[in-house]
Each structure stands twice: as structure tokens, then as C-alpha cells.
Model the fold of this input.
Amino acid sequence: MSTIAERRSALHDRFSTWVPRTLDAWLDACADQYPERDLVVTDERTLTYAEVAAESRRLADGLVALGVRRGDRVGLLMANHAEFVTLKFAIARAGAVAIPFNFLYRTDELRYVLQQSDCKVLITNAGFKDLDHAAMLDEIVPGWDTPEFAERPAAGGGAPDGLRHVVLVERDGDAPRPAAFTGVALAELGREHPGVSRDAGHGPDDTADLLYTSGSTGSPKGVQVTHDAVLRTAYASALTRAYEDGRRILFSLPCYHMFGYVEGLLSATYVGGAVIMLPSFSAEAYLAAIEKHRATDMLCVPTMAVALVESPLRHETDLSSLTAILCGSAPAPVWLWEQVERDFGVSEIVTGYGMTECGGAMTLTLPEDELELTSTTVGRPKLAGTAGIPGSKHDATGLAALCTYRTVDPVTGEVLPEGSIGELTSCGPTTMLGYYAKPEETAAALHVDGDGITWLHSGDLGHVREDGYLVLTGRSKEVYKSGGELVMPKEVEEALGGHPGISQVYAVGVVDDRWGEIGCAVLVRAPGPAGDALTAEDVIAYAKERLARFKVPKRVEFLDATALPTTATGKVQKFRLVELVAQSVTTEGEKP
Done:
């Protein structure tokens, strides 16, 4: 078997010159080279590179025949099913901008992003698990399932007026639901108009994706990234992790997120590999899929890794194909990786760091690094070779880096001396174009220095070590992660604030031994019967009715108003709330 260095060298030699491409042009190049190889593997369906390319071409012709043009925004509300991939590439081939929506959105959240994105066409499943997307659309845009919908007048009142077509992609087991337009009809329309997407006119520097992430104002922000940017990031992942030919990557992380989309789907294509996609996570499903589909790599977050090592099924499953793991989103102790290495026989364990705004994960530890680095750092800028910043060099490999990090004073923005703790900022060829239709937020996030270089402010505090590895020390913003997803406290607070038994509510992220980080709602009860009777279970149930699952607090704490830590002006100090919650955990743990 070839060494890590040999695999990396071979991949670098294959891409000795970086050629910017669109996503669809890259798919076609891969389909020419690996036509019969698997690209998408699910328990229901397997598609080869040639089949994905052909189906995406048919669907793109359908979209263009439907009226989609270069730059139009097409929403995709769908879990990790095989058709997500063909539709994703079809949207790119039509020259449109894909908006992979979070399929866990509730009605008000979906209404907002449909309106804010100026979505023209929405492609959706009827629902996901207990979420009824079709019923949500009945409330958001009544009549979406009728032929007259495309000709409706502007609705006003915050409705998504630009939405002209909803394509319902039916799946086996769905309850019957009439629709004016279906996924089958879209494919048929493409067959009737073959080749109409051929001259879409888009290029590598056009916006490929509009990816929504939580923002500092409490409402999601649409991050605009180009075709070339996501392909550079994906190649850098394959190069840094030294993919072998035909790597098979297992993940349940959703493709509306950069993790599944770039680290999974796109990166696998650089070695003619496949993605084994699961619609949701369970340790049993992961372990079964490794054995059934011979996965060689898997993507996870620490909570998943804990569940895997705790599952009794791991002793009954053939995991001999698995050689690599990428675990991101939150820190994890070194003992976890030592146990994964021992129990699963995995020799290449890496972690990383990044954000949607910079193009996804920008840093990774190397597969040849000691496990201690995986627990104490978030890696260093990815190796990118010809796709990276010209002139930058990785100390050990000599390859160019994907980006550069430095720290600045979080208040003044002044650049700090090397090694100083401050706000992490980055620059590189994959940085977002900006937030869609949010100029003020874009201006706050992107800063052009005196040399004309655009720097992205992360909102995270940390420092860059002398060896180039990044260490995170906190967040300068209030956002926290739950289940690997960013949560804006204000959204949680506004949702819970409507409960008659709640007087004050503050949402914070707290460290948790099992989950890495969880959301905690700190509440002050309202006076009267509603407040007196309020329990933590009541609060969580109330939140589940109004928020996406990952935003629902996993913990609830009650305080008297007089116990809230405040400044001299009466503002609640959230960092001290976090300390109080942590002390509560310690005290409980000390009880006999």
C-alpha cells in the first residue's frame, strides 16, 4: 500500500495546474474519466458518475424549459437522498444558483429564507420524518400545488413573491399529495427539450450556491460562494488528507451544509470516489453502512463518535474497510480518538475548522499528525497546491496553502503580533462574495486592507501557533453550536419569550461532556400560575413546536431575577450565565 506522502504526491501531480471550472463541467470531466464507477450510494439507489451526469443534464434541460435562467435562484429542500445530487448538479448546469435549504426549518423559518433569497423555483420532498413541508407551503404560499400558481399576483405581506414554481419530488412511502409539477414531470420536460441548458452561459466565478447560516442579527444570512471556490476547497481536502483512488466516504451530515457538501460529495470526486449518504444519523446505521457499502472514510462530529464507540454493534460489524475519519464542529478529548483508533482500527483521524463564509473548512490536521494535535488544535490551513495562495508554503510539505490566518483586535480591528490571541481573520481564493441582499452585514464581515486583500472576520477568538496550527479560545459572537449547527441565541429567546410562564429568557452555549457543546435556556419564571407551574419539560416541548430541532435547548435552568449577573447598567452578562450553569453541573456531580 502506498504511503500518505506518495498518495498526496500523486494527487498533486494530477493537478499540477489549476483549471477553474463550473460544477457541471467538473462533473462531466469526472464522468468521462470514471463513467462506470459509483458516485452516489444510498440504501435505496446507487448512481454511477455517468448516470449522475446524464440525469443532471436531463433535469437541467427541464429547469431551463421551465424558465430558469443564469443567476436565478433555485431552492432545494431535501435530505440526503440520491436525487439531491442529480438536482444539485442540474441547477449548476442550468446556470442557476442553488439554495440548499435546511430541511429542519419550521414554517416561519422557511418563509423567511424563501422570501429573502428571491427563490424562483423550489424543489422539495413532501416532508422529512415528522416535518410536513407540503403543509408548510400551504400556509406560506397557498395554491402552490395548482397550475395557476405561476401566474399569481404578488401576495405581499412578507410572502415569497418571486416564487413561481414548486417541484414536488415524490418518494416511496409518501402520503398521496397532488401537485401541479413533480420531479418526474421536470425530467419529462427535459426530454422534450434536449440540450436547451447547453448554452447557459455561466462561468467558474459565478455564484454557485447561496448557503444560509445564522447571523449576528438573529436572522439567517445567505452566503454567496462561487463554483471555483467550492471546488478549490474540495480539492484541498483531498490533497491534505491524501485520498487514495476510489475513496468511499460515509456521512449523514446534510448536504445543505458545507461539511457534507464539500468534505463529502465534492472532495470524493477528485479521486473518482463515492459518497455513501444517509438521511439521518444513528450509530447502528453508520456501522451497518460501513460493512454493507465498504466505506473507507467517514465524516462525523464528536457526539457521533461517542455514540459509535458506545454502540454494542461495533463488536459485531465488519469495519475492516474503514481507514480514515474526519471529525469537526467541536473539540473532543484525545481519549476518544485513542479509543476510535483502537476499536475501529482507523489510522488516519483528522479534525478541522472553518465557516461557510470562507468556503467551508479551511484548516485540517494532517492524517500523519499525532492525535494530541487533533484534540488541542483545529489544524492548520489546508494544503491546496496549485489551487492555493501563490507563494504560500507549508513547512513540512512545501505545498501552497488554501488560505492565510492572522488575528486582530476584536474591538479596533488592529492586526496583532504573531501568536497573539485575538479575533481570527482569513483571506484566500475561496472567501465568500458576500451575504445576499445584506450589504451592511457584508461590510461588517469583509475588510479590504491597504494591499487590496480581502479579510474575513470569523467572530472566533484564538491564536496561530508558531507551527501554523490554530487554537480556538472562544467566540466573540454569541452564536453557539448544537449538533454541529450554528444557533443564534436571539432566535431561541424570541421563540421562548412568547410563553406566558416566562418572564425573561437567555440562550447560551455550554460545554457538555457527551455533546461537546449544547444549548441551554436560562429562564426567569413569570409571576402567577403559569410561571409557578412551568417545568423544564414544558419549555422544551414549547421550543420543539417553534424551532428547528437543532435549535431546541437540551437543558433548561431557572433563576430568580435577582440572581441574574448584570453590568452596572443592568445588561445581563451571558458569559457569567455560562459560568453559573457550569457551577450547577459541578455541584450536582458532587452530590452523593
